[in-house]
Batch of 3 targets.
Target 1
Amino acid sequence: MTYRSPHEKREQSLRLYHGALALLVVFVLVSLLDFPLLHALTRADEHGRIDRSFETEDWYSMLRIVGSLWTWIVLSLALLLLDRTLRRALPVLVSPLIAGLGAELLKLIFARERPVDGGVIQDGFYHFRVPFSGFIDGSNLGLPSSHTAVAFGGMTVLALMKPRLAPLCFLLALGCGLSRMLTGAHFASDVLLGAVVGILAARWIMSSESRSDRKYTFP
């Protein structure tokens, strides 16, 4: 474990505090755009039923699967066969896995429903259940977006490994979040929090990996 002086510990705590405060402000600001963006990005009939015909389009499928854990399982296997070591394969698998599990856990705690229920935009404002009630009934919960968390968890690892790929990685991850908003499955704030969960998971995994300095090789 790296030694930190009391001054360095205070500086780190201060940075964490400022980062958390900035994140809270951004979350509030994005939340103010939730309903304008919901109605701007979705097409609904007079009954509020969402048009999801575009889900059969290739561009939508491509963006959606970026947030699928199966995508990262296949990619980690490809890296394993290519490198013959777990050095890159393991973080590429573990980061999106932890991000997805973290997002699912937060959904059960926050218990905020998706903007759409049964293909129809819900009336009124946000629909919250009792906090932690998701552990009893976890259906139709949306905060945060698990697909976005998985996408950012995997893409952030790739960006940290290969910085030149960072613009493409984050563009694809953002595209995954946007695809969830186009269907009415998530608010913008759901996507934002999912992205934060994914990025934090990736940075934690990569920092742990750099400290361990293990090879994970096999013949």
Target 2
Amino acid sequence: MRHAAPWLAALALSVGLAACSSGRRSAEFTLDGVQPPALNCPVPPSQFGQATPVPDFHEGNGCGVSQGYRVYAISEVGFSQPALITCDLANALNSWIASSVQPTAQAVYGQRIVGLTVAASYACRPRNNVSGSKLSEHGQGDAIDISGFTLADGREVNVLRDYYGSAADQRFLRTVRAQGCGVFHTVLGPGSDPYHRNHIHLDRQRERRGGGAYCH
């Protein structure tokens, strides 16, 4: 393993993560209607966070990442574990953190967010781990699942525990989720379906009915 390419370590880590499902992981998926992510990279993530580029790789079955980065932090918000995502998604996360996450945290808690709990990023699998479904956006590094936000005082606002918790926690989580719509093309979370009860799913999927975002 000493001579393995750097992205292999990130790939092995990401595949083992829980993502959008409580069921078993399956590699069976269809590519019908699946489009590659946008290759937009307005600003290299290393300019607004702690991130290292990952060489393009493709697994030969539709999975793989182009213009990928292993991201450890964005705008001084640390990730609980590195996220293997596209440059485009990293830029969207940076915009969301600056325009929604931090202002909302200040308004609700009077302090900033210093960490994100990353439940999943790149993973070669079908949507929701349902065999026979389309390839998940996770399979192209175009999605990330956030299960918690760490405040400056050290407390974690946990999606599973707090989405229906105190008034303050509900306000924070529901606001940042709603304001992600548009920055991201898909936003899912508690109440969307059983698969997303414990995290907020964010992706930049290009294929959208009617061309708009899907936020549910």
Target 3
Amino acid sequence: MTSRRDFIIQSGSIAVGTALFPSCLNTSKKVDDHGLQLYTFRDQMANDAIGTLKQIAEIGIKQIESARSAKGHYYGLKSTEMRDVCADLGMTLRSGHVHLDDNFQQTMDEAAEAGQEYLVCSSMPTNGQTVDNYLATAEAFNKAGEDCKKMGLKFGYHNHEYEFESENGQVLYDVLLDNTQGDLVHWELDLGWVIVAGKDPLDYFKKYQGRFPLWHLKDMNMTEKVSTEFGKGGLDIVAMLNNREQSGVKYIFIEQEEYASTPLESMSFNVAYLNRLEL
């Protein structure tokens, strides 16, 4: 069976036109400091990291979040080289997706060298959809948060949809939030996976105010359960952005894992969409 991350939408090229945007959009205001999760360009980064970063900068991206790859956390570049290349292009390496594993000290060392602010565990480090497992994971997250804080870093966690499953009436994601310290564990809410799980991000903004300094802004095709270009899926992007203060968000990273055509066309479309929002 094809995985969600590997599924490629076979559809036509993207037409970037005003007819595709909702009536609340206007060119009079722009959303500045667009962020991007580099998993969106995973194949391109693996083949030509610097050339791909140049393309990303050209479409107006200002904030970068890296992702672990077969070539390491920086796609074959040294941590300081990744930092400097981004800076030369007018971008800032803010965060990176990593594993919480036996090499975590090296991961922290690299992130400190790169000048990152956040290290984000990209998926559950242990198996088992049980409250007990999530309690143990929360303890591990608090410890990782302490270790990161000592090095001037902030530790975070990025959700998928499975964390919103329940055991005995307890939502497992809530178990993590309720049992981690707010000054040690910082949450990156992937808005797309939240709605796929049948939850409303706004409920989490209200219940856990200020706990989500990072977002993945990701629209989702709710039929196929795969990501799509902004405005084509089930995420109410305007509502999300109108409530960003309540969430405590500092950096919003666009992520798209499947594309109608190419990652560059999809990201160009998404940036244009955000630039046309009047909020």
